Amino acid sequence: MDMEEQDFPALYNSADCESLKAQSHYFGALRLYLFLLILAALVSFAFPENAYAVIGSASLFLITLGILVWLKVQKPEDIWYNGRAVSESVKTRTWRWVMKAEPYDKDVPEEQAQKEFLNDLKAILDQNRSLSHVLKWTPDLGEAISQKMIAIRANPWQQRLDTYIKDRVDNQLHWYSKKSQLNKRLAKRWFVVSIFLHSSAILFLLYRIKEPSSALPIEVIATAASAVLTWVQAKKHNELNSSYALAAHEIVLIKGESVSVKEEAHLSEFVINSESAFSREHTQWAARKTV
């Protein structure tokens, strides 16, 4: 019995959706801002004495100013970070509930376990009121407690352990490993681009010493190099590669500890320890926005 994304509480699905949307808006706006800066510099270089080109270049800079104002006012990065923190907090609580881990263990009556779980979801929502203007609910987002969650919770502990290993531990391991490799490749790619731009600027400057009257796009290349640096700093490829790789290794160790689960009580302890390790990542997300 697989636990899929749509089987998590509606709060998780809503926060996750809005976080991904805000992330897309943030990087889309930043990408457009940097592209227009380079384009404005290119237009200014290519047509230095053309009045229309000057007006066009000024218009492009005006648009980039508008993008900066939009980013400052709308703060999509805050929605992105907070939405991610909420969705991961809900996911952690959900897995503890379906696995009957403390405080939702088998010694607690089902009605009380459901009530405590719902109260925990309310607490998460109350702590993140800043998301109230973007969080939505539609029938396709599901309920607070899905039928799949109830069905998995009702399984014997051995089946719940198998579900947890496959749908939680292995899922996290695959995600972190994949993201680590992706960020490693992108970090190398942007490093090569940055080296190329800086080398080009140096060569053009040296050539200008020989031919002072030559028209070379040094300012355009410098703007492009700055744009690449800004993009790399925003994406944090090297930082994410390291943190995701470390998380993947930690999850491998977590998976190895599953062999010690011999009874219901051991499962509860294993889930609590695993979720504590997983929660470090979304705690870092919440902290990263203050950096």
Shape assignment:
elongated
Uncertain stretches of 5 or more adjacent residues: none
Describe the main β-sheet briefly: none
Order of helices and strands: HHHHHHHHH
**Treating each run of at least 4 consecutive H or I residues as one helix, how many helices?**
9
Distance between the termini: 41 Å
- Radius of gyration over C-alpha positions, nearest whole angstrom: 25 Å
The total domain count is 1
Proportion of residues in β-strands: under 5%
Overall average residue pLDDT: 89
Give the fraction of residues assigned to helices. over 70%
Number of strands: 0
What structural class results from the helix and strand content?
A: mainly alpha
How do you describe this structure in short?
The chain has 9 helices and no strands. It has about 290 residues and is mostly helical.
Describe this structure in words.
The chain is 77% helix and 0% strand. The protein is mainly alpha-helical. It has one domain. The protein is elongated and about 85 Å long. The two termini are 41 Å apart.
